[in-house]
Design brief:
Order of helices and strands: EEEHEHEEHEHEHH
Strand content: 15-25%
Number of strands: 8
Strand order of the largest sheet: 4-1-5-8-6-7
Helix content: 40-55%
Distance between the termini: 13 Å
Structural class: alpha/beta
Radius of gyration: 15 Å
Length: 186
Amino acid sequence: MAVKIFIDQGHNPTGFNTGAEGNGLREQDITYNVGIQLAQLLRQDERFEVLTSRTCISQIVGYSNRTSLEERVWRANWWGADWFLSIHTNSSTNPTATGSEVFVYRSRTRAYFMAQDILQQITDQLQLRNRGVKIDPAFYVLRNTNMPALLIELAFITNPSDAQKLENDQAAFARAIYDGLVEYLF
């Protein structure tokens, strides 16, 4: 039986629940593209089934910040996903902040150990600082899914070097997440 992966491309393209911006980039565009490329890799592997929260770059999920998050979680729960991956870019008022990190609901869980593998692949393959796996039960998408969930902060959109990778290496981010999934699951 195939492993069902729900990919949540964080944020909406316009209106409410839009993401961070920096260095001429928009978070919601990067997350959409990385999510689509990850979905393509997973669909080429018969061990996986995949569903995304956004099927086109202009798609808006929900009709407020709250309902946007609720809709993403509801779709994953309704579909019966085995794993929930929410893809984001980080931001900071400090332009020197750099690297990748992954948030999970609690420590020493399946999500925690998968997060370690995915984070290691991202930081190794893209040569980014490993900021670690962090616990944050406050994230709506981590506390309301019926399956293990990860919130992946690819890199800092507000850091010029990270932003260059976010713009030019989206396929590499998708590949690293895929490789981390495969390493953990198989």
